[in-house]
Amino acid sequence: MTRRLLCLLVLFATSCSLLATDKKLSVIEERLQRVDTDSPRETLGSFMRAMNKYREGTFKNDAELMEWINDAVRCLDTRQLEGVAATQSSRDAAIYLKEVIDRIVKVDLSRVPDTPDELDWEFPDSEIIITLIEDGERRGEYLFSQSTVARAREFYEKVDDLPYAPGSGQGAGFRQPWLERSVPAWTRENLFGIAYWQWIGLSLAILCGLIIRLIVKGIGSMAHRLTRHTETTWDDTLVESEINPVSLLASSGFWWASLYMLGFEGISLKVLTVLVQVTLTVSVIWVFYALADTISLYLRSLAERTSNTLDDQIVKLISRTMKVFVIIMGAMVGLENLGIEVYQLLAGLGIGGLAIALAAKDSLSNFFASITIMIDRPFQVGDWIIVGDADGTVEDVGFRSTKIRTFYNSVVSIPNSEIANTGVDNMGQREYRRVKTFLGVTYDTPSEKIEAFLEGIKNIIKANPHT
Hints:
It is a single chain. Helix content is 59%, strand content 9%. It has 17 helices and ten strands. A hairpin with a 3-residue loop joins strand 7 and strand 8 (401-406).
């Protein structure tokens, strides 16, 4: 009896394990299922299946199910949305289209063409069109047309008061934002494609952003007064230099959030997002640029404690490098956020990039030569050196060249690559200087006077402690 019961328990556990495995496999297969867009029927079916999953996720607050909206977006021709806010605009268009379709008809895929014989197919008595893509990387696929995507909200506003069609998917779980539902009816009228309440909200957002900037500046001024009581000076410089960029960053962040709180869409969202994105990028670059300045000041204070003046040049080189790096990286990240594929652009330069690299060969050679000079330290600022035909005192060691002040008071700039590959005679490193002087006397000078003269010169030389 006990053995039979044990066998039943093992069989039950095995069955549960197999069911769980089958369920897991079915979930994986469902998630990896291809978004089929080979015909109008397949495109519409893929879109409706993905949006129904998304609707289920909104009600269950399930983030994984809500990610199905990305499959629905794959069924849209979103080429005109590329760039700023393209992802959010594409998702909004998918939601509006699902809301419209479920209000006008219960989808019957058997009535939708399943053969790629037609260029376009449209919903009966509507302007919702599924069209064949004839160019680009999605050539040969059937997608909801660009005009359909662009007018998705317009379609929704025409039918938002209608009930869902019987047996339909009941929309996408979309509800108008609380703010839009709460404003008076007259403020929903449009001016240049933007509702009055959005114009009012935009004005208030700009004003609040400026107030936030003033508040942040006030906090920074208070912090600056506190840092004055410390023994170090770099913290004063840090706070003072960061007040303006941080206050602008705080305002930009508030404006960025306001765009989505106010529900801007389409062209207005693109334009406003570009303006805010540029301001945000500038503020971030400004923050790190000011930070680089403070770091340079701190390194400069350390270099001043040493007797070697070349340390000052190293700090200057590091400072310039940090600032250039901050500007270049900030600009690249900013352009990426604006939808410009900077990295692909750089990678696609091809022969042009090779030509630029060859043209910049001398500049790169001088840059690395300057690093070599900093490491080897064949001379330092203030040394008297002779390099080729140049003879004078070193004034500055830069990225590209070294400046030498000649004894004629002119300045000679010598490329660092030339200095690195040429013998440098550092006269400033001599322990002793040999002075060879010729003194002439007339032939009729008596020998006694010459002897006395020589003795006097000897005494003068012996009396000098540095000789």
